[in-house]
Amino acid sequence: MKSKIEQAISEYKNLFLSVNNPNLNFSVWIHDETPVTSFYRFEKCAVITLYKHAKGRGNAPTIVVERGGSLYSYIETEVDSMIKGIHPHPKLAKQIFPESTT
Predict the structure, then answer these.
(1) Structural domain that includes position 90
(2) φ, ψ dihedrals at 4, nearest 5°
(3) Residue 32 included in any domain
(4) Is 0.70 surpassed by the pTM of this model?
(5) How far is it, in rounded angstroms, from Cα 33 to Cα 62?
(6) pLDDT tens digit string along 12-37?
(7) In angstroms, rounded to a whole number, what is the distance separating the alpha carbons of residues 81 and 84?
(8) How many domains does the chain have?
């Protein structure tokens, strides 16, 4: 599993860093909690993928939502709680790329 996570991180870094855009704000965060969904937040949209309990790959729904909607707001709140924390709870995630000095 560790090698698959490392491969995914490497692929995302290659994808986003290959874009020649100095305004691109890209970071990778990890945390030790067991996720119940996968989500990715971008500037104008977010992607959420549900996990399935059936064996095998495929057939898991993936939803793309636009900024401003309730699902985007949910993902934004979840990401913010992980990287900033919500009082009185500390942040859950650690920034691994680019390396954080804090």
Answers:
(1) 28-96
(2) -70, -40
(3) yes
(4) no
(5) 21
(6) 888 888 877 777 778 888 888 877 78
(7) 5
(8) 1
